[in-house]
Structures are given as C-alpha cells and as structure tokens.
Amino acid sequence: MDTKRSQNGHKKTSTRFHFAPMKENELKPLVTFKNHRIQFNEIIARETFANEKFSDKKITLVSVMGPSRSGKSFLMSILTGGRQGNTVRGAFKTGYERCTEGILVFTQPMISEDVSET
C-alpha cells in the first residue's frame, strides 16, 4: 500500500492489485439475455467469484452500468489494467453495433496485495 500526504496534510493511501498468476484472464458471460429472458450461468459463477479456491479471500464485485455505446467496456478495461504502454486492450470497438451484452466476469480475480481498513 502506498501512503502519501495531500496538500492539506491528510494521508492518502492506495492499494495495488494484480491478476492471479494462473492462466490468461478472459471475459465469460455470467448473465445472458435470450428470448427476452435473463439466464444466469451458474457454472461460470462457480469457476469465477464463487470458486472455492478463493473462499479465504474477501470478494468485491465492481460493475459499470450505462446506456449503450457509452464506454462501459472501455472503462472496465482501464480499471482492470487493460493498458500496455499507450495501447488499451479489452472488449470494446468503434462503430454503431454493440460489442458486449449481458453481464461478463473475468475468469481470474484481481488480488489485493494490501487491503486498507480506512
């Protein structure tokens, strides 16, 4: 955890995150919409955030909601370390067609090196 002082003397802390070093991190559909029905994929849930190998970890889910084509996937790519130098990678593209639909989760969690209790 990095601790710095702001201009007014208050302590500012930040926590560093990294992806668990298992296999390549990819997005999988946790919730899909078919025939005007919501479908929850329990297998994906068990493989990701509900996986027993993470049972001793504190889990925090981060989500982004907004209108179609407003940059939600781009924001999540930035938040999850999707930058490599000046290049941003992730599930987004230009154009008028939607790129993502439903609720997607990463196959590997972001592990906190230090957790601030403040």
TrEMBL record:
Residues 56-118 form the GB1/RHD3-type G domain. The keyword GTP-binding applies. Belongs to the TRAFAC class dynamin-like GTPase superfamily. GB1/RHD3 GTPase family. The keyword GTP-binding applies. One of its GO terms (molecular function) is GTPase activity. Keywords: GTP-binding, Nucleotide-binding. This is GB1/RHD3-type G domain-containing protein. Signal peptide: none annotated. InterPro entries: G_GB1_RHD3_dom, Guanylate-bd_N, P-loop_NTPase. Pfam families: GBP.
